[in-house]
Write a structure and sequence with these properties.
single chain; 25% strand; alpha/beta
């Protein structure tokens, strides 16, 4: 007797809209292939929708309303990047991942879904500076490591959106010395409501530096 397959929550169709069918196919990749290859834990197979797809998709609500370049650092199995793109297909998305087996999985998914998303086999640290407008991340690194990376990669006016869990407050407190005395960094802890669940997001806006008065 096999375990029951998790059904998409009723709200998922509204969240993913025209790309709901792609979200269903991606969820199946996560439930099967990603689990088989060790990219998703076996206990996660029956809670892919709320814990992974919809939680990731909440970041789309924090994006600028205009089309932007987005880099998903340490993308892993494509989270949060792919769900964000399914909600906001107007963005230009790069999934950056350093591990070959994860890169292989990402390329299979992107090809199977036939979506215009780039998969980059590289460490995020190796990307050129000022390479993007938005960085998104989920379960990659604490802010003490993620923030310096984001500051280097973001263009002026860019934003880091990091999904966090219950340890968000401790993570922010530990990283606080990194932005003290730096008015160009504005850090917020935000609670984003989507499909009846709340996602905790640490948002860091990198404001353009003001030129000194002549």
């Amino acid at each position: 007797m096999t375990d029951p397959v998790e059904e998409p929550p009723p709200a998922a169709a509204a969240v993913f809209g025209a790309h709901f069918d792609l979200a269903v196919r991606y969820a199946e990749f996560l439930r099967t292939t990603a689990v088989e290859r060790g990219l998703v834990g076996p206990r996660e197979a029956d809670r892919i929708w709320r814990r992974h797809l919809l939680n990731s998709a909440a970041l789309a609500l924090e994006l600028p309303e205009r089309p932007v370049d987005v880099v998903d650092v340490g993308s892993g199995a494509g989270l949060p990047g792919i769900p964000v793109w399914l909600v906001r297909p107007d963005i230009q998305l790069r999934l950056v991942e350093s591990m070959q087996r994860r890169v292989g999985f990402l390329r299979e998914v992107v090809a199977a879904l036939d979506v215009p998303v780039d998969v980059v086999h590289a460490r995020a640290e190796s990307l050129p500076p000022a390479t993007t407008e938005v960085i998104i991340a989920r379960a990659v690194a604490p802010l003490t490591r993620l923030l310096p990376l984001a500051v280097r990669l973001l263009r002026p006016g860019g934003v880091l959106l990091a999904l966090k869990g219950e340890s968000a407050d401790a993570d922010i407190a530990e990283a606080a010395p990194l932005w003290q005395g730096r008015p160009e960094l504005r850090v917020q802890r935000r609670e984003v409501l989507l499909a009846g669940d709340t996602a905790t997001v640490v948002r860091v806006d990198v404001l353009p530096r003001r030129r000194p008065a002549p």
